[in-house]
Amino acid sequence: MLTFALRRAVLGIFVLFAVSVLVFVAFRFIPGDIVDQQLSEAGAVTPELVAQKRAEMGLDKPLLVQFTEWGRGVIQGDLGNSLWTGRPVLDQIRSALVPTLQLSMLGIIIGAVLGIGSGVASALWTGTPADVALRMASTVFLAIPQLWMGLMTLTGLAAIGYYIPIPYRPLMSDPLTNLQQIIFPALALSLGVAAALSRMTRSAMLEVTGADFIRAARARGVSPGDVYMRHGLKNAMIPVLTLLGTQFSNLLSGTVIIEQIFNIPGLGNLLFEAVANRDYPTVQAAVLTYGLLTIVVNLLVDLSYGLVDPRIREARS
Amino acid sequence: MAAPPVLDVQGLAVTYGTLEVCSDVSFSVGRGRSLALIGESGSGKSVTVLAIAGLLGGGGAIARGSVTLEGAEISRLSPKERRRARLMGRRIGMIFQNPSRALDPVYTIGQQLNEALALTGITAKADCRRKGTEWLRHVGLPDPEEALDRYPHQLSGGQRQRAMIAIALASEPEILIADEPTTALDVTIQAQVLNLIRRLQRELNLALVLVTHDFGVVAAMADDVAVMYAGQVVEVGAVADIIRRPVHPYTRALLSSLPTGKPGGRIEALAGSVPTAVDMPSGCRFHPRCGIAEGKCSVTAPRLEPSTYGRLLRCLNAEELRAHAI
Amino acid sequence: MPAGAVPADTLLTVKDVSVRYPIRRGFFQRVVGHVGAVDGVSFDLKRGETFALVGESGCGKSTLGRAILRIEDLAAGSITSAKETRSFRERARQAQVVFQDPLGSLDPRWTVGSLVAEGIDVHRLARGPERDAMVRTLLSQVELPASAVHKFPHELSGGQQQRVAIARALAMRPELIVLDEATSALDVSVQAQILNLLKDLQVEYGLTYLFVSHDLTVVGQFADRVAVMYLGRIMEMGRASDVLTAPQHPYTRALLASSLKVDAEARIETIPLLTGDVPSLRNPPSGCRFRGRCPVVQPGCASLDFRMTTSGGRQIAACLAHGNS
Amino acid sequence: MSHAAQAIAEDIAPRRASRTRKILAALIRQPVGCTALVFLTVILVMALVAPLVSPYDPLFQDRRAILQPPSATHWFGTDDIGRDVFARTLYGARISLFVGLAVVSVTTVIGGLIGLVSGYFGGWIDTIIQRLVEVLDTLPSLVMSLFIAAMLGPSIRNVIIAVTLAQIPRFVRVVRSEMLKVRTHDFVAASRVLGASALRIILTHGVPNLIPTMLVLGSLVFGIAIMTEAALSFLGVGTPPPNPSLGTMLSQGTRFIGIAPWLIVFPGLMLTVSVMALNLIGDALRDVLDPQRQ
Amino acid sequence: AQDSPQSGGMVRINVHAEVPNFDPLASTEFGKHSRLGLALSKLIDWTTGPDIGYGQFVPEPSLAKSWEISEDGLTYTLHLREDVVWQDVAPVSGRPFTAEDVVATFEAMRNGGVQEGLLADVAEITAPDDHTVVLRLNQRNVVLLQNLAHQNMWILPKEAFDGTYDRNTTVIGTGPWIMTTNEPGVATRYERNPTYFGKAEDGTQLPYLDSVEILPITDLNARIMAFRSGQVDIWFGPLNMTQMAAIQKQLPDLNDIRTVSNTQTELYLNPAFEPFSDLRVRQAINMAIDRQALGEVIRGGGELGGVVGPALSAQTLPTDERIALYGTPDAEGARALLAEAGYPDGFSFELTALNYGEEFMREAEWIQQDLAEIGVTAELRMIDKLAGMTLGQEGGFEALFLVMSPFAEADEYLSTHYLPGANRNYSKVDDPELTAMIEEQRTIADPEARQQKLWEIQRYIAENVQTTLPIWASELLHPSHARVHDWRPMMPQGFPSLTEVWVSE
Ligand SMILES: Nc1ncnc2c1ncn2[C@@H]1O[C@H](COP(=O)(O)OP(=O)(O)OP(=O)(O)O)[C@@H](O)[C@H]1O
Ligand SMILES: Nc1ncnc2c1ncn2[C@@H]1O[C@H](COP(=O)(O)OP(=O)(O)OP(=O)(O)O)[C@@H](O)[C@H]1O
Ligand SMILES: [Mg+2]
Ligand SMILES: [Mg+2]
């Protein structure tokens, strides 16, 4: 298992490398650079000043040199300083990562609890009005774009006169306020996840309940509850876990939007601003972080299969 | 068959929605006896035994007929009542065709055994282990102690089927139902497993209902045989007797279409194929394929009636045939 | 071997054929090992005969059949035929196949007509009405009604599906048809029909069959010669009547003993049993591959070299108990 | 793809036509599929004939009627420069559907082709393709699209490119794994024995057997494309004004949250209903095309 | 409530963008320099007061208590206050302020600072003694005094330039408040600077407020919520009229202060592109746009743009003249001009709009519809801000629509737009006559005469050049809660009047 995880980690690094090369090259095609941004509200500007500032930031060097310098830094754990803020990129990523992680974690947890719970209930009550209602709800929520969900949440809150406290408070400094700020966006994110998981759980449960080993368990006198939860749910978890992984990626996409709507200084906002400012090191780092998150989550999902399914656990050792 | 039968099935009919996939199945098994249910694919063997075990799923229901277990009618019981009557596992044990699919892949053999042991009141961890090991040893698994902690996929097909048998027997049932328990196995393994089932059945004095489509298995395993065709039992009798003197035209055709193993020579093939529930012929269900069918056969549906030597026959020409056969 | 070296009555010579499946692992799908599904198998196929391959599941029967059809690459050895062929297109006229699972071997999205005509279309043998006529003829040859043309496979019974597969193979007018457990999935009554049909076709068109099966009774009735395989190797080979009535290799004997006969006197208790399971092909036992389960195993079996010896028109794998090592 | 391909295409053409009709017929018989189909058709038709149905020009600024709430004259109200929200929603759906359709077509063709090749041939081609897919798939799809769109600049064409590139991996992955499954079927082996070429097998066995998967996946990707287009437009890197993309409209509406909810409610509803119709069609197709239910 | 100022209390101000860093030399953006102003001072400041207009520059002594300008206008002698000490923040820790600090700051600005352009005409900076600074100019430039009061011209201690501390993160000045904590994206807190040199007229130590908190809230709705719920006292940054009306409904007695924006939208036409090479076509475009209605509908107020932005009320053309030039749409006349130029059926061109947000895009769409009226099709293309600026500098556009930088001097407008090679001269204007006029106005010391010259230039541009069409300067809303008093927003950044703000409890 450990070697499996390690090997996956190494391969993940390869993938990240490829991604960062792609991003590095592609991003330079966008016209304009940080110096233009810094001087965007200046009056008279001489070309000499522009050239001087560019050189200060190493933007005049060949692309390959810039990339190797950046890459060398990354290997030594130094993501460089932001061209825009001058602060270490690592610090920025760290403080932006917390709310994003919080959002996505909370979103996935709420989504998983709601989704798996309602999926199990729905499968249990197959054909009853409750099942129909749950399925309809999941169909609707699955179709609501996170964008709209976020906006409608905001509209709803405005309608009832509830104000999300401002400004954003980091988790560490003010957990209570932070929760008040995170909970609604997380909820807005989680409903789609819940809907997807609910559907998947339901169909996986139904599929599993038709399996021979369920019949066999019933035949050997296992109580219906145990058949359902012990044998049914555990086996149904495998496709659900896969979906959980893809949903996480989906959720990360969603945070980009939700952070904009709810004004949360997360990774998405950071990336968005960095792109607008042509803050190359920050863009690179943010992209790497997204990639890393995806890879880690996929790895976790893969590892969790092993927890559920001994066959997979075995194949890996 | 002097002793009253443990299991007695009379006129059992099973429907899935409007489809009657099994209509009029009758047979009985006594303690320590083994009965084989044979018939071609789709003839309703599995449905019959699932109905007996109370495992009809997906909209299946017993429409008519009775199933009595030691004199008590069980066919009308709800799942709850079945559990209360301790039918599931405790009195009726079941082995399935495909051991790879009938064992839950995410639990060890031991964990699944424990579920069965719990029915007999054994729940303490140490007791479970001891008893579990005992059962696995009983079915001849090598390293029974260690096998308890194995997952199904870590066993070979034959071993899995043995584990399945151990689990089915661990709750000490009175009746063992085995639905094609060896079809998925190789001949050498099949022989081992069948031998084991037979041995245990004798030792534990179980009533065995064995579903198969292989006359070789019937010959080797069963005391009695019920031949099924298109959802009906068409002939019931002692195995040796039926193999020697099949009476029903279908039984005869079935036996003669078996390859003999003699080189060359055509096989006497039975034309056509088993009808399905949607296009069931009128009258005798076998008449379109029957060599001796007459006009009445397409009109009148024959009933399963006793004949000589304790034989039951479903044929309008039963009398003639019997005379002919003997 | 040049084509000329093949004797006139021999259709195909299989010589020391091995087939291995790679086991892949990891990110770059590296090959980390091999399954030696077929390991050093040799035999000749005579024109017009039915040659049976029997053995337990996973012993490599199908793989050998696929190798002969050239849809599996050979790791070693050679397969030579009287007619030199280079491409799949040419080979198609030489050898065809009927698989075990009738539904899986028929594309569910195709009609019977197009399925039967697939070879005709691939080789542009005929077009338009001429093609349709050929299809009708083929259907009647396998005793299917012409009305089946527009049906989809799932609308047919298992026996009918198998007839479609046979018709598809026949369309190429091949010399050899590999029947990979072509009747195993069928009911006995239907199996009998198909076996009869195959026999008729063989007589009519002088077909050669490579008959893969695990049912010794069927083989006894249907095959001229038989090769018994175990873990990728042939253990015994010879005339079906000889091998199945007087088996010599301990494995053949065990296999025969285990197969149940429809006999009023037969009792399961009387059958001699083999112990243990079939070992894995990934790391087969050294020496004689059967030694782990052999009732007459001896200390020397572990170092016994695999070799076929011939005696009285029969070939037997080296065996200490049999004394032919 | 030469003569052979053409001939093969001719071979399978009639089959496909009748299949399409069959699938449609089956869909209509299914309650969910039927409802979804009706919804989608209504949206599609309205979008297509928007110029005829629409009471106003979606770009026309009625500068005397700004931020009007929904009324008989302006069903969905007006925006902050007096444009009719109903007309804009209709045209927005038109853009969304166009983007979705374009993305789905391009993804299906490119992703499908890559997936088919990767799945059929396996080996190093497959390995390389898989690794590439993995790289493309490392970023969350919206981040990926965002990045590409930012790089190319806002325009409908670029949105299509951005969404397509982000969705192709999903397609390749699924098609490949389905092709792997199809490849193991004996009918493929039988075809090879009959002498059929790889191209022929892919086209005659691979493609038809993958059509159900592709249809289901296509409806899914269609929905995702619509949502991504909206998200990108919302973030200002998608469909640029004055085109009334649903996402652009939402973005405009955010400035009037709590004041002019109709600016958010209607485009969002349109978005949701379109996606829902597509999801439902996907579901229905999955049911209809499931061989076990055929 | 009281009506006389009292000390104490705190206000919270929202801003709409986070600052990247606190280095005044690194970049020009509005938000940063606004916030620096709480802690830093300039040599000369803008006078604020109830009677002084938003964009009206009246020099007020700050760190420089007085100054003299030589007859030839080439030598500026500034006398510095002697009672000023730096804030008690390490590593400067309350050291007295001297001329050395000014020299160090100006030298750094001239060498790679974004203020380089403001000191372009300065040849030499010397400090004859600790409290005198002398600036020697290459050429006459009457704007220099105002340049010294420019929003970017914060004076830093000399330690800021020798690496003693990091300008990015540490702010040490002589201003009214000391920056105590800064949580990026959350809040920046400022506490009263006890050693601040400013005094009120009655001698009270300034500032009145004990502390100020700046809350960067990028999202409009979040900001509105924060303001409505009282989490913010002073609104700073964009707000549209509709939202303002809604806020006012809830908070009827808030201080409703409105000023004209110091930025304006501008439409660059590229004469290198065929139809726009013809002055008549450019004039026709100008005549087609109904700016007044645009401002009314989209911005809900504001003023007609000008060659020099309308916020510079003393320098831009008088309102009626601007209305005549830009505020009287005439579709008929435009069509006639087009016909005259050979485009009776109009033409189409690509209108590239930089992405400055929703209202801005609405203006672009508005212009599009106005142009359609005269048969000219503008294909709207949206582009990222920086990409747009690059496009402008490279001249690869047909028409470019953007928001101009906040300039505080007519000279900035003129020299950046119309001098050959200048960085905002996207239309590549090279008119020797115009160049001469622009250079000339810098040397006119007499305010009246200079104003006349500036007007002359603007008229010349409107008649003969017309490459950059000024569109609209919107109305800026500066609402504050009722407890806030004497808040007078002023054009240059840095909240110059905040020292005089006080709160009632
Ligand atoms: N869940 C079900 N729903 C509907 N029909 C069913 C179901 N299960 C079985 N049937 C039908 O009942 C009939 C009898 O099936 P059954 O499985 O009992 O046959 P069998 O004799 O066991 O055949 P085999 O030898 O193939 O196992 C078949 O026609 C089958 O299609
Ligand atoms: N594509 C493959 N990749 C890897 N291993 C394979 C592959 N196909 C077959 N094998 C392995 O090769 C061995 C021989 O397989 P083969 O299918 O030839 O057996 P068989 O004798 O036909 O068995 P059966 O009677 O079950 O059909 C088996 O162990 C199987 O697991
Ligand atoms: Mg069955
Ligand atoms: Mg095989």
UniProtKB/TrEMBL annotation, chain A:
<comment type="similarity">
    <text>Belongs to the binding-protein-dependent transport system permease family.</text>
</comment>
<keyword id="KW-1133">Transmembrane helix</keyword>
<keyword id="KW-0813">Transport</keyword>
<feature type="transmembrane region" description="Helical">
    <location>
        <begin position="179"/>
        <end position="197"/>
    </location>
</feature>
<keyword id="KW-0812">Transmembrane</keyword>
<feature type="transmembrane region" description="Helical">
    <location>
        <begin position="105"/>
        <end position="127"/>
    </location>
</feature>
<dbReference type="InterPro" id="IPR000515">
    <property type="entry name" value="MetI-like"/>
</dbReference>
<dbReference type="Pfam" id="PF19300">
    <property type="entry name" value="BPD_transp_1_N"/>
</dbReference>
<feature type="transmembrane region" description="Helical">
    <location>
        <begin position="282"/>
        <end position="308"/>
    </location>
</feature>
<feature type="transmembrane region" description="Helical">
    <location>
        <begin position="139"/>
        <end position="164"/>
    </location>
</feature>
<dbReference type="InterPro" id="IPR045621">
    <property type="entry name" value="BPD_transp_1_N"/>
</dbReference>
<keyword id="KW-0472">Membrane</keyword>
From TrEMBL, chain B:
<keyword id="KW-0813">Transport</keyword>
<keyword id="KW-0614">Plasmid</keyword>
<dbReference type="InterPro" id="IPR017871">
    <property type="entry name" value="ABC_transporter-like_CS"/>
</dbReference>
<feature type="domain" description="ABC transporter">
    <location>
        <begin position="7"/>
        <end position="255"/>
    </location>
</feature>
<keyword id="KW-0472">Membrane</keyword>
<keyword id="KW-0067">ATP-binding</keyword>
<keyword id="KW-0547">Nucleotide-binding</keyword>
<dbReference type="GO" id="GO:0005524">
    <property type="term" value="F:ATP binding"/>
</dbReference>
<comment type="similarity">
    <text>Belongs to the ABC transporter superfamily.</text>
</comment>
<dbReference type="Pfam" id="PF08352">
    <property type="entry name" value="oligo_HPY"/>
</dbReference>
<dbReference type="InterPro" id="IPR003439">
    <property type="entry name" value="ABC_transporter-like_ATP-bd"/>
</dbReference>
<keyword id="KW-1003">Cell membrane</keyword>
UniProtKB/TrEMBL annotation, chain C:
<dbReference type="Pfam" id="PF00005">
    <property type="entry name" value="ABC_tran"/>
</dbReference>
<dbReference type="InterPro" id="IPR027417">
    <property type="entry name" value="P-loop_NTPase"/>
</dbReference>
<dbReference type="InterPro" id="IPR003439">
    <property type="entry name" value="ABC_transporter-like_ATP-bd"/>
</dbReference>
<dbReference type="InterPro" id="IPR003593">
    <property type="entry name" value="AAA+_ATPase"/>
</dbReference>
<dbReference type="Pfam" id="PF08352">
    <property type="entry name" value="oligo_HPY"/>
</dbReference>
<keyword id="KW-0813">Transport</keyword>
<dbReference type="InterPro" id="IPR017871">
    <property type="entry name" value="ABC_transporter-like_CS"/>
</dbReference>
<dbReference type="GO" id="GO:0005524">
    <property type="term" value="F:ATP binding"/>
</dbReference>
<keyword id="KW-0547">Nucleotide-binding</keyword>
<keyword id="KW-0067">ATP-binding</keyword>
<feature type="domain" description="ABC transporter">
    <location>
        <begin position="12"/>
        <end position="256"/>
    </location>
</feature>
<comment type="similarity">
    <text>Belongs to the ABC transporter superfamily.</text>
</comment>
UniProtKB/TrEMBL annotation, chain D:
<feature type="transmembrane region" description="Helical">
    <location>
        <begin position="36"/>
        <end position="54"/>
    </location>
</feature>
<dbReference type="InterPro" id="IPR050366">
    <property type="entry name" value="BP-dependent_transpt_permease"/>
</dbReference>
<keyword id="KW-0472">Membrane</keyword>
<keyword id="KW-0614">Plasmid</keyword>
<dbReference type="Pfam" id="PF00528">
    <property type="entry name" value="BPD_transp_1"/>
</dbReference>
<dbReference type="Pfam" id="PF12911">
    <property type="entry name" value="OppC_N"/>
</dbReference>
<feature type="transmembrane region" description="Helical">
    <location>
        <begin position="142"/>
        <end position="166"/>
    </location>
</feature>
<feature type="domain" description="ABC transmembrane type-1">
    <location>
        <begin position="93"/>
        <end position="282"/>
    </location>
</feature>
<dbReference type="InterPro" id="IPR000515">
    <property type="entry name" value="MetI-like"/>
</dbReference>
<dbReference type="InterPro" id="IPR035906">
    <property type="entry name" value="MetI-like_sf"/>
</dbReference>
<keyword id="KW-1133">Transmembrane helix</keyword>
<feature type="transmembrane region" description="Helical">
    <location>
        <begin position="97"/>
        <end position="122"/>
    </location>
</feature>
